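Co-fold these.
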Amino acid sequence: MRPPIRQSMAWLHAWIGAVAGWILYFIFITGAATCFSVEIDRWMQPERPLVSQNVSQAQLLEAGFRRLGERAPNARIWVVSVSSNRDPSRLQVLWREGEASGNSRSLTKTELLDAGGNPIAYRKTYGGQLLYRMHYQLHYIPVVEARWIVGVCTFLLLIGAITGVIIHRRIFRDFFTLRFGKGRRTWIDVHNVLAVFTLPFQLMIAYSGLLFFAYIYLFPIVTIAYGSGDSSVRQFLNDLSTRPVVAGPAVDAAVRVSLPQIVAETNRLWGAGQVRYVEITDPGRPSERVAVSRQRDGPFRASEILVFDAVGSVMGRYDGPSSTPRLINDIVLGLHEAQFANPPLRWMYFISGVSVAFSIAAGLFIFFGKLQSISFRSFPIQQLNIGIVAGLPISIAIYFWSNRIIPIDLEQRQAWEANSIFVTWMLTLTFALMRSADKAMQNLLWAASVAFGLLPVINALTTQRHLGITLLRPDWTLAGFDLTMLAIGAAFAFAAVVTARSEAQEAG
Amino acid sequence: MRSSNARVQLYFRAFVGFIGGYGCATVASALLTMFFPVERVDSVLSALMIAVALYVLCVFWAFIATSAVWAWLGLLLPTCAAAALLFLF
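Predicted complex below.
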């Protein structure tokens, strides 16, 4: 005796939405923001200089080597990192004193430098990288548990998307149906249009997202092949690692080659401007090893690596995945992260991610609307939903506000920037619970519009990186951020007006 | 409103699909890729990639199976068979 297929698919679809909806909404909003995490980093560190076009990568690398030579001549590991395709003037150096193989993060020091190699004193912030990390390991929750929660929800998304397609009777005709002012019918149409439009994206993103930690979620497979325990997982990751294993004799100090010369040799082999970072182990000593990693311009997640010894001869290399499964794995993960994407493609990822988030939001609105009238007559559950869904964008806008407002010398200011997201979210939730559903929606949409729209103004009042300066340079990364905030503010205002009119139409 | 019998069916099939499906997908993929002539890391990667898709199919199987018992057996039997084969090799 089997329940009718459409009924069981609809039941499953609704249950999955209820269980995983809010978390998936959070994942897609923070994930979409991650498309621009590097750009957000720059905006949140306004002390960094404006973009300058005429500094070559070789010059930046040389400035980095010089700075490390002055600042940390006795360190065991040096790293000079540039990121030409996203942020042409970025120059970061890291170094670690003490044992080269130690794992302690606190021994690693880092600085951001300008084009001349001088350190920039910038405010402590997690920047866009916080949104990236929260997207797969949430916040406040221990990392392992958080990744499991995200993994389960991602799998539920896969099931949910497919059940959605199955229950959708007239999927092609309905794709062109978007009726306004019909209350629940409108929300269903919005949900369907956005979900169908982004269906391939959803399937790709969810499947590839699962692969990142699949070896944890599907641990029996690793156990069957490698045995149980932490050491077997480490062995698996080691086998997967693309780090060239280099061992070799120390060389005669008299024929040493300088780091700029190694960069020149790399440019000869790869072309100019292809370096992503240079990692030097035991700098200045006979056992020096220089690993150069290449920029990513294709979907392979792991980039090519060349390892030089102190006399400048190549002694190890990684040229790309060495087997078909690793090739496929690299491509699939690379498609998820889209590190290689040029600006138009990056915007497409962003728009797709936000569309999926809105589709989930519409679904949640439908679900809780039904639930409110059936089960929760005395508890404002639809307002709870509105507070959570509308509250997240407001909270992210406040995260950017907090970067400009929290005092620069406050201890742990970056933790407080992160806290501001969740404090705001709690406040919007509480606010929504106290209002009627319609009013809560209106008020929060307008609040979001103001929060995003005023951001460029706050920027102008607190820094020297506002539109008046960045449009004149032009520094399109910084100007683009402010302009995008204005556009998002306008979009929320439009949404507020449309929903108000829709409700009036429905009531009248 | 849905009858309580139908509701029990749905909960049961969901449980079977998600729990039984996990076992079936992981063990069956591990078995499948054991016979690929590749390095261990590659067979694990392949198994992981296949297992995700297989798990999705198992969940749908649990709802499509013609009876609740068949939903359960359809996942349990392959799991046991694959586990036995893996144990033998």
